[in-house]
């Protein structure tokens, strides 16, 4: 079972790619939804207000990956698609790549544009800090205070991550478990018979 994915840690900017006077600058951003995508593009349009095009592509999701490519006025599939191709090639997700073009006065043709946007994206991804992360399942454990030692023993033995804890009339813990270990861990807690365990979305 695949329970890892690759993403980036923070924003990066690649080296400038030049072709016949046009300049292409790749920008990479970690994103988790389309609102973030819109925000980053708006910010780049302010930062590079003299540029002609802001072509982009993104991939979002850990298991079910959604994606989009946008040519921003360039000929069809000459901007966004080559950028998306680099995201697939680097096998990253939850990532937005925007390649900003400053027009140099000479048309590059579709082939030239495909190459330029691909290179702009590649240069930015090459300098990015790409990390491997695990796909995790979150469980909520609800139990009476007297059973805390038993629960904590399992958490420590299995080196599970506690996301949150509430200690009131009873105890409520939210724990994070690697996907491939989730069924086994759930069974271990169910066998305690002194708590309720729920899978969180």
From TrEMBL:
InterPro entries per the UniProt record, alphabetical: Impact, Impact_N, Impact_N_sf, Ribosomal_Su5_D2-typ_SF, UPF0029_Impact_CS
Residue ranges the record marks as coiled coil: none
Domain Impact N-terminal residues, every copy: 20-125
Gene3D superfamilies given in the database record: Impact, N-terminal domain
Homology family: Belongs to the IMPACT family.
UniProt-recorded name of the protein: YigZ family protein
Organism from which the protein derives: Urechidicola vernalis
């Amino acid at each position: 079972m695949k329970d890892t994915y690759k993403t980036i840690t923070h924003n990066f900017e690649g080296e400038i790619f030049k072709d016949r006077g046009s300049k292409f600058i790749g920008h990479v951003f970690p994103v988790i939804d389309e609102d973030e995508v819109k925000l980053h593009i708006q910010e780049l349009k302010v930062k590079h207000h003299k540029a002609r095009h802001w072509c982009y592509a993104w991939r979002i999701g850990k298991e079910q990956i959604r994606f989009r490519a946008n040519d921003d006025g360039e000929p069809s599939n000459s901007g966004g698609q080559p950028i998306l191709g680099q995201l697939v090639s680097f096998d990253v997700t939850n990532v937005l790549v925007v390649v900003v073009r400053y027009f140099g006065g000479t048309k590059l043709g579709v082939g030239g544009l495909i190459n330029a946007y691909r290179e702009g994206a590649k240069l930015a991804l090459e300098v990015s800090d790409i990390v491997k992360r695990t796909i995790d399942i979150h469980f909520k454990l609800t139990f009476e205070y007297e059973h805390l030692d038993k629960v904590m023993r399992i958490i420590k033995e299995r080196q599970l991550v506690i996301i949150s804890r509430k200690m009131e009339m009873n105890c409520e813990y939210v724990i994070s478990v690697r996907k491939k270990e989730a069924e086994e861990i759930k069974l271990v807690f169910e066998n305690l018979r002194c708590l309720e365990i729920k899978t969180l979305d």
